[in-house]
Amino acid sequence: MTVMTKPQSSFKLEAVHPKPEEAHTMPYAPAIHIVGACDLMFISGATASPLYHKHPHVDEEHVQPHAIEEQTRRAMESIESILDMKGATWRDVVKITKYLTDFRDADKMHATMNKYFGDWRPASTTVCINQLSSPGARVELDMIVALPKQQM
Questions:
Q1: d(Cα 112, Cα 136) in Å, to the nearest integer?
Q2: Has residue 11 been placed in a domain?
């Protein structure tokens, strides 16, 4: 079991590995245990489209690059802006749900995400779906983040 202590907080995150000797083979943690008090933040799904866009959608705002790496990078940059706003880091992310329109893109998506997460591997689920919210979108990411409890 890997223990990650958070500076200046009243909780810690533990990656739960029933077989710790095999943890290095996994691109994610089987589970994340939040020990102590914290707040949770749920990040809505982000695609390569701009974080803020019109509803109903305007096609010109949703021109997607073809490369899964670039689509993943754009989604991660949108999520990073949310983390930054709350003073959080990638190491505060405890759960990711990844939606792909082609599961063959998973390895390239993970390689791009790993540039942000470094050696931290949150709990994770990948779902292959038929279509996302805008034409050409191939990946959507949503996340759950553990934040230090705010002092009142």
A1: 19
A2: no
